[in-house]
Amino acid sequence: MHRFAYGLLAVLLAAATPVIGAQRQTPVGVWQDASNRVRVEVASCGDRLCGKIVWFRWPNDAQGLPLVDLHNPNPSPRRRPLLGLTILRGLRRTSDNTWTEGKIYNSDDGVDYQAQMSIQDDTTLRVRAYSSVPALGRTQIWRRMC
Question: Which CATH number fits domain 26-144: 1.10.3720.10, 2.170.270.10, 3.30.420.40, 2.40.128.520?
Answer without folding.
Answer: 2.40.128.520
